[in-house]
Amino acid sequence: MPNEIKIKDESTTVKEKCTDEAVETGLARLTPERIKNTINQVLQDETGPRFKAYVETCMHCGLCAEACVYFLSNDRDPAFSPAGKVKQTIWEMLDKKGEVSIDFLRRAVHISYTECNVCKRCAMYCPFGIDIAYLMLMVRRICHKLEITPLYIQDTVNSHSATMNQMWVKEDEWIDTLQWQEEDAREEFENLRIPLDKEGADVMYSVIAPEPKFQAGLIYQTATIMHAAGVDWTMPSTPGWDNSNMAMYTGDNEISGRIARAFYEAAARLKVKRIVMGECGHAFRSTYDVGNRWIGWAMPPFEVVHALEFYHELLTSGRIKIAQKYKKSVTLHDPCNVSRGRGLHDMAREVTNMLCETFIDMTPNREHNYCCGAGGGVINCGPPYKGERMVYNRVKAEQLKATGAEVLIAPCHNCHSGLEDIVEHYDLNMEVKFLGDIIYETMEKKIFKPGDQEN
Fold it and tell me: Cys-Cys with 373: which of 238, 270, 393, 450 at CB 3.0–4.6 Å?
């Protein structure tokens, strides 16, 4: 086969599911009564007509199966189809009225947290539009209330709950990191600032906590882009700067709402006109379409713009000019939460073509693109599940290899990390970059001024 990929460990199937310390500890504490009461409480009190319609409408036709990368990567095993996952989890809970076993729950955790990215691709192929991602999130909600969430992602939520950022970055460490990046960036732009707590700025720029913790250079790049474009911007010095939200994916709706509220309150304190978010799909989904609902708003109280939209605005207005297009051939991954979730797939291609000489699209692409295999909290379940995740990503690896591109652009943090794992595991010989990386490498360093002529 032309797209056949090389696998380092020669294993194409998962022979043994991993165990998780937190899951096993939680399971050991459960009683039949607690299991039954918790399941029935969630299904009776926390669902409504939407849930009832989905459960009663499914015809078991299997048309959703071809949409799922887990199904395709596991040689079309029906157990990995979206409908198969629902049948093994929520349907059995309903059929047995919550009287399920410990072994059943162990499998339900594995299916809902690590064998589904809640990417919603299957909903596009269901003739009735059943949102199986929603049903899987209900399984996660039950697991959360039973205290059997996988260890690594639960630790992330605990950190965010305690410190208002998922990486336990202390307030002085956050400010020190911004000052450090400002000092480095001033070697390129003498007067560059990363403005902290500037009231009334046009833009509050926000990031996910892994940036100051592990990828501070991305903040440097953003500062140079903002400065070169003459943007009136700021960042908060106090908690609320981290726009990530793993609680959205663990089923901890209460903490998810707290995190979203802290984020919006940071913008309100600064009286900014809008929020520009970094290249992160799950954070955008959380802020734009999930966290706001848990605290009572149909829409966010501020205009929320993904980095991709912001880059498009800067490039088309002429506030950022490209000195020389990027030479290496590139392909573009469509993150689920900004493509299917926000419809930015065509805009992403416009930006890519403005920046790069040779763009090779994937097949399938746009809202039909395969998930990266890392989103939906799956990569956040940690190293114990990485081996399985690599097997489940086989179809994505074949898709990437078929492009023959030298560089893979992934405008989303979880996608970026997950795709780096795929590239390394399957020896694909590609660089993985953010759009911000490409802009920084190709843009003119001349500072835009309001009087300059725009394109």
Answer: 393
Across the range 359-379, mean pLDDT stands at: 95
- Average per-residue pLDDT for the chain: 93
CA–CA dist 363, 367 (Å, integer) = 11
Distance between CA atoms of residues 244 and 287, nearest Å: 8
- What is the Cα–Cα distance from 152 to 22, expressed in whole angstroms? 9
Tens-place pLDDT, residues 109-140: 999 999 999 999 999 999 999 999 999 999 99
Alpha carbon of residue 450 to chain centroid: 35
Distance from the Cα of residue 84 to its chain's centroid: 24
> Which of 15, 5, 28 has its CA nearest to residue 105?
28
Q: How confident is the model over 316-358, as pLDDT tens digits?
A: 999 999 999 999 999 999 999 999 989 999 999 999 999 999 9
Q: What is the DSSP string of 224-280?
A: HHHHHHT--EEB-SSS--B---THHHHT-HHHHHHHHHHHHHHHHHHT-SEEEE-S-
Amino acid, single-letter form, for residue 348: A
Q: Hey, what are 385's tokens?
A: 């599940």
**By C-alpha distance, which of 185, 441, 171, 208 is closest to 307?**
208
SS3 195: coil
Q: Which amino acid is at 192?
A: L
Strand partners, 196: 235
Distances (CA, A) of 189 to 14, 194, 197, 358, 439: 51, 12, 21, 30, 16
Host H or E run for residue 408: strand 407-409
What per-residue confidence (pLDDT) applies to 15?
A: 52
pLDDT at 3 over 80: no
Cα(388)–Cα(17) distance, rounded to whole angstroms? 8
H or E element in which residue 424 lies: helix 413-425
pLDDT at 296: 81
CA torsion 20→23→29→34, rounded to 10°?
Answer: -160
Q: Which own/partner contact pairs does 8-12 have at CB distance under 8 Å and 24+ positions apart?
A: 8/425, 8/426, 8/427, 9/387, 11/391, 12/75, 12/391, 12/394
Residues 6 or more apart whose Cβ sits within 8 Å of residue 101:
none
Dihedral sign, CA of 353, 408, 333, 303?
negative
Q: Give the model's pLDDT for residue 330.
A: 98
